[in-house]
Design a protein that fits this description.
Rossmann fold, 8 strands, binds S-adenosylmethionine, Methyltransf_11, Methyltransf_Superfamily
């Protein structure tokens, strides 16, 4: 069955989800770790709605250049609108496994929440290495969906929902593989960082509240989950919220590497 689609609807959802304070904070940590400098050429692979591209553009300034690349036309349309006032930014159509740039074209490259959707990660990392100059920096961030803590009463149903949700991407447990894969692609791993997302209450405009909607829509009909099952799962979480017994956390894993 198909993975999550970044079509018009998926794009609208990602725009809302990635505008939450939880993900805004995550982006600030990513920016600080990559530490793009004025005048640098930076690539964002799988740039989605372009929020990180816009911040990178401000970091490198008009003397630098930022390229965002994504294979989703709706995502690229949103990103182009966002950065229309920064002529040193380009949003390119393309695939992470076949980057449309010459060897050594960039000083730094970033890819957050993308390789977990890419079937051939070694090929994508070898492309990442190819387009960086020797000594260029890479930052790769992905989620391990085993890191989710979500308090529910019906744990058996919750496990079925989360198993079905793992079908939304190709690699639900990619982070542990990344250091070895980066090494084999020609990188030296220089940093390993944990970025937790934590929602101690069920509140609107949080990562977990918006994910309840997305997961409920995605898992229906998978792993034998009926409409009633999915409604029972969402009701369980909402009741925990009403009782002040809600707790959600999830870890992003971030790796910094230098092209050898
Ligand atoms: C979850 S979103 C993350 C967007 C962005 N990196 C961020 O963190 O805000 C995943 C993005 O990766 C893109 N994507 C997935 N597979 C890709 C591939 N093989 N090549 C290029 N983009 C890809 C999707 O279209 C989507 O925009």
């Amino acid at each position: 069955m198909s993975v999550l689609q970044f079509d018009e609807r998926g794009t609208r959802h990602i725009v809302r989800l990635y505008s939450t304070p939880d993900v805004v904070r995550q982006r600030a940590e990513v920016l600080a770790l990559l530490a793009a400098r004025p005048g640098e050429r930076v690539l964002d692979i799988g740039s989605g709605p372009g929020f990180l591209v816009a911040s990178l553009a401000d970091a490198v300034g008009a003397e630098g250049a930022v390229h965002g690349l994504d294979r989703s036309a709706p995502m690229n349309a949103v990103a182009r609108d966002l950065v229309a006032d920064r002529p040193w930014v380009r949003i390119d159509d393309g695939d992470a496994v076949e980057l449309p740039y010459p060897d050594g074209d960039f000083d730094a490259a970033v890819s957050t929440q993308v390789y977990e959707y890419v079937a051939d990660v070694p090929r994508a990392l070898s492309e990442l290495r190819r387009v960086l100059r020797p000594g260029g920096r890479a930052l790769v961030l992905d989620t391990d969906w085993d890191s989710v803590v979500w308090h529910v009463v019906d744990r058996a149903l919750h496990r079925r929902v989360m198993t079905a949700w793992e079908e939304h991407l190709v690699h639900p447990h990619l982070p542990a593989m990344l250091p070895g894969q980066l090494l084999r692609a020609g990188f030296r791993v220089t940093g390993r960082h944990l970025i937790p997302l934590f929602n101690p209450r069920l509140e609107e405009n949080t990562f977990s509240a918006l994910n309840i909607e997305m997961i409920a829509r995605f898992v229906r009909g998978r792993q034998g989950l009926t409409d009633e099952d999915v409604e029972a799962w969402t009701a369980d979480l909402r009741e925990r919220g009403a009782e002040d017994a809600y707790l959600f956390s999830l870890n992003r894993y971030c790796f910094l590497a230098v092209a050898e």
